[in-house]
Design a protein that fits this description.
- The chain has 225 residues and is mostly beta strands.
- It is 8% helix and 59% strand.
- The protein has an eight-stranded antiparallel barrel.
- β8 and β9 form a beta hairpin.
- The radius of gyration is 26 Å and the shape is elongated.
């Protein structure tokens, strides 16, 4: 009897120790903001919703960009003053589900690792007095044109690998890296019959008109809803 009683007592003591470990409640949904978007005068916010086992989630983000131009003076074309809205849908598979862990000091935190696929699309306007400088190949003379309206739409898809963890028990840090491809369509109109087909310009990855392979990396900060 004593031989059977000893293992039972050990099991009960281990269970009691596990119950004493502090834990954090698993979130059902998170409200998030992407702070790196502030660098391009853009606000990106969204929600991530988990399944019951926290092994999958769906995210929906909306973002807006407003590069204000309050000056009456014309600007050289290439000075961007975009205004527009966009959205992004993301599906995440947590290869390491979001769950409780403890530090060496016994403090609880939540952590998970995921892979995701995303779809995004946006539409922008770039309006104002922008001056093009080009040259007529026949005469060699400089040609000026004032661009009054530019419409840009873009759409893309790709993947990310990310790391999710809590800080101070309430703040969720989401760091990710990945890549994809983006397509864009640009419609330009000017006050003169300027041939934009003969004009080439470079668009960086933060430009709405960018088209091609696109890296995707950054941080998101979130709180539980």
């Amino acid at each position: 009897m004593r031989v059977l009683l000893l293992p039972l007592l050990l099991l009960l003591s281990v269970h009691a120790i596990c119950q004493d470990q502090p834990t954090l409640p698993l979130p059902r949904a998170l409200f998030k903001v992407a702070p790196q978007n502030f660098a391009v005068n853009s606000l990106k916010i969204g929600t991530e919703i988990f399944n019951k086992s926290r092994t999958k989630s769906y995210s929906l983000f909306v973002y807006g960009r407003f590069d204000g131009n309050n000056s009456t003076q014309p600007y050289y074309y290439g000075d961007d003053f975009y205004k527009g809205l966009g959205g992004e849908f993301q599906y995440r598979k947590y290869i390491s589900p979001l769950q409780n862990y403890t530090t060496r000091k016994g403090k609880p935190f939540l952590q998970g690792i995921y892979v995701s696929g995303y779809l995004q699309a946006a539409s922008y306007k770039n309006e104002g007095d922008f001056i093009y400088y080009s040259y007529d190949p026949a005469t060699g003379q400089q040609v000026n044109a004032v661009v009054v309206n530019e419409s840009i739409s873009n759409w893309g898809t790709g993947f990310t690998i990310g790391f999710h963890r809590t800080l101070w028990s309430v703040l969720y840090i989401d760091a990710y890296i990945g890549g994809g491809i983006q397509w864009s369509d640009v419609i330009r109109m000017s006050t003169t019959n300027f041939n934009f087909d003969n004009y080439s310009s470079y668009s960086g990855i933060t430009d709405p008109a960018y088209q091609g392979i696109m890296p995707k990396f950054g941080l998101q900060l979130g709180i539980a809803l």
